[in-house]
Amino acid sequence: MGIRTASSVPHLDAGYGIEVDPVISILRHWWHRPEQYELLSDHLAARHLQSFARLATALYMGGMGAVTLLLLVSPIAPASPVLRGLSIAFTIGWIISAVVWSTHWPTRRQSLALIGFIEAGLAYNCLSVTDPRVGLAACIGFAALAAFVAFLHTGIHLVTTLAIALVTTGICAARYAMSGNPTGAMATLIIVIFSLLSVPITVKVSMHILGDLATETDTDELTGLLNRRGFARSATELAQSVLAGGSADIGVIMVDLDRFKLVNDTQGHAAGDQLLIAVGEILVKAAATTRSVVARYGGEEFVIAAALGHPALCDLGERVRTDIEALPDAVTVSVGVSDLLSADFPADRDLIRRLVGGADDAMYLAKHAGGNRVAHHVARAE
Questions:
Q1: Where are the domains of the chain?
Q2: What's residue 71's pLDDT?
Q3: Using the 8-state DSSP alphabet, how is residue 291 labeled?
Q4: Helix crossing, 22-31 with 182-218: angle to 10°?
Q5: Which three-class secondary structure state does DSSP give residue 21?
Q6: Is residue 108 a contact partner of residue 35, using CB atoms and an 8 Å limit?
Q7: What Rg do the C-alpha atoms of the chain give, in angstroms?
Q8: Mean per-residue pLDDT of the chain
Q9: What contacts 54, CB < 8 A, 6 or more positions away?
Q10: 382 has catalytic annotation
Q11: Per-residue pLDDT reduced to its tens digit, 197-230
Q12: Which fold has domain 228-379?
């Protein structure tokens, strides 16, 4: 794996064969980035942050409901009975949305539906009041929504939200200017637009940077697999997901190359590196049919956490052993397998540590018995 370096000059974009500014390349990558709502939702849940996010969003919804109600009873409330009826409907909708977010984390479709409602409600509040100054100032409310969309949804959803916000802001600014204060309208417009654009862009850029840093610090440079740190995090998340469903089908496979030092001594370290890469590819392919996490644990040791119980976990370990034995280098591995006796375990990093410890013990049993074999260990409650 080569080291990537940044350059201030334009570069060739692989997909187009023309010179593209790095900023444009980053924006294109961001625009085409796939939906990660479920992944980010699981990430928040694994770190016990989902409840906080739900509460913050519910408070935002409730606050918007309170604003709509206050505007309805204020001197700048819409005079039309139809618009007043809409204010009441939106107030009820805000309250229902707050309840939904406070009780459970919505699915991706539910989230997008709620975002659509919020966009409509915010635009209505800003455009329906009779005082354009209040309407323009209220457009800042779109900034928090845009930040939420930037965090959980795709580029097209963020652009849609910002487009609605900017159109609403432009209309409110024009009304304000026509009321006799164009300079005040322009000053307020600049502040609102700055807030609308800076908040979600900051969130998106921060996520991009943190995502790259997380990838770099959690990834083994040689094989491209997770390293020990990345494995601990991802395997814990997998275990939490499995045990939350009441299943005990979670286990760890430890793989250690037999006599790897001999390969380095007789063929050179470059050949040893290529062998490690090949072994990593075999593990990824073998575990691809199940929910799993594959990592290079250190040196010539690899590890797999898989949502499998006995004997499926042992079958996976045996498949890994035979596939590696079939390599042209005629290398063999000692494989240790560790799984749970029951689901009565706390789904934390200590669980993964115990499973890894059990797999490591089993692997050494296999190695001391001559290598090129699979040994099994069962984790029991302490």
A1: 12-216, 228-379
A2: 87
A3: S
A4: 80
A5: coil
A6: yes
A7: 28
A8: 83
A9: 101, 102, 104, 105
A10: no
A11: 888 888 877 766 655 555 556 788 889 899 988 8
A12: Alpha-Beta Plaits (3.30.70)
